[in-house]
Amino acid sequence: MSNESSQKIDILYEDADCAVINKPAGLMVHSDSRSGGPFLTDWIVKKFPEAVDVGDPMTAPDGTAVNRAGIVHRLDRETSGVLIIAKTQKGFESLKKQFQDRTITKKYLAFVWGDLKEEFGTIDKPIARSGSDFRKWSAGRGRRGEERLAETYWTRVGTGEWGKEEGAKVGQRFTLVEAQPKTGRTHQIRVHFVAIQHPIVGDILYAATRPPALGFERLALHSRSIEFENMAGKRIKVEAPLPNDFKGAYKELGIKDVA
């Protein structure tokens, strides 16, 4: 597990009905009945005991009940950044409806392999289960089962060269993108960038043959910001600071930070 997972979890925003935290990379949101802890839900129960039964019932793959603990949405284990926790059931229902209505705006930062030539674009490819690996999802050939519509908007933030060996003329090119998923499918950003042949750096599930790069020891995906409406009807925007590995990769490629 990443060393960052043992660090203090910062609360970025809090009111009576919800809190937004900065999830460290390496920390699972809740148990899947196969992995050992700690889990984010352990921290939530201690920090916000009133949230222990908030949310919809959840079950692990083996059918055992999972502590709900105010979980409204999830981030993959190796993804860092902003995540909303509902502290009350009315707060949960409000946030759940906003996710369903797609009025919540989430923006991610990701380092991907190669040069994205366009300044911005849309990846509009349905996602279904992979036909070759039960752990994976796919937006390409070989997918099976129910296909779900999925759409991701992206903007190129910067590009750069890294890994030039002594005597070599060029190194590997990488692009930093800001990705905004319109839909919220499992692994959506990862699957969509694989589908356009620009997998995310450090993605050992979807780009297993790619070597480590840019100093990352995990998936180079960071949930940078989220916008939602609180129970008072006010539009709230919360942003997570860049983790150290992202700061290092910015420096390696000579890219300036973006808001």
Tell me the layout of helices and strands.
Blueprint lengths: L9 E5 L3 E6 L16 H8 L10 E2 L5 E2 L13 E7 L2 H13 L3 E9 L6 E5 L2 E4 L6 E2 L4 E6 L2 E12 L9 E10 L6 H8 L25 E9 L5 E5 L4 H10 L6
Characterization of the model:
The structure is a single chain. The chain has two domains: 1-101, Pseudouridine synthase; 105-225, Pseudouridine synthase (2-Layer Sandwich). It has four helices and 14 strands. The protein has helices at residues 40-47, 89-101, 188-195, 244-253, and strands spanning 10-14, 18-23, 58-59, 65-66, 80-86, 105-113, 120-124, 127-130, 137-138, 143-148, 151-162, 172-181, 221-229, 235-239. The strands form three sheets. Strands 1, 2, 5, 6, 7, 11, 12, 13 and 14 form a nine-stranded mixed beta sheet that branches. The protein has a three-stranded antiparallel beta sheet with strand order 9-8-10, covered by helices on one side. It has a two-stranded antiparallel ribbon with strand order 3-4. Strand 13 and strand 14 form a beta hairpin. The two termini are 29 Å apart. Residues 1-5 have low confidence and may be disordered.
